[in-house]
From TrEMBL:
Organism: Jejuia spongiicola
Lineage, uppermost ranks: Bacteria, Pseudomonadati, Bacteroidota, Flavobacteriia, Flavobacteriales
InterPro entries found in the cross-reference section: RidA, RutC-like_sf, YjgF/YER057c/UK114
Membership in a protein family: Belongs to the RutC family.
NCBIfam families with a match to the protein in the record: Rid family detoxifying hydrolase (TIGR00004)
Designated name of the protein: RidA family protein
Ranges that cross the membrane: none
Organism domain of life: Bacteria
One Pfam family it belongs to: Ribonuc_L-PSP
Length: 126
């Protein structure tokens, strides 16, 4: 059985998908980009600010499923320029404890939705 997870504290989907789906004890999130959920505006000032908005959006989705970053077991990070990796990693890493950080891959891609620089999705368990 699956349960659709939604929150107004993260950007509404801009296509035929949901913010997250809970199946049993496993949460699958859709990718989050740096959209301000209140205004719908992109936050693209610099890569650290953009990444922080992405992580705050993800935090809201996790919270809507009664979870936190401690529940995350896998992250996927898609970036438009691998030269931004270290700055993205600093912000991303600030949301996790090194002793229980999730598995992760980071992939440079040709293009992301709305031409953003970073998109992150996660899998979490209760």
């Amino acid at each position: 059985m699956k349960k659709i997870i939604t929150t107004t504290n993260a950007p509404a989907p801009i296509g035929p998908y949901n913010q997250a789906v809970l199946s049993g004890n496993t949460l699958y999130t859709s990718g989050q980009i740096a959209l301000n959920p209140k205004t719908g505006e992109l936050i693209l000032g610099d890569i650290k600010t953009e990444t922080k908005q992405v992580m705050e959006n993800m935090k809201a989705v996790l919270k809507a499923a009664n979870m936190t970053f401690d529940n995350v077991i896998k992250s996927s990070i898609f970036i438009s320029d691998m030269n931004n990796f270290s700055e993205i990693n600093v912000i991303y890493g600030s949301y996790f404890d090194d002793t229980n950080a999730p598995a992760r891959e980071t992939v440079e891609v040709a293009r992301l939705p709305k031409n953003v620089n970073v998109e992150i999705s996660m899998i979490a368990i209760k």
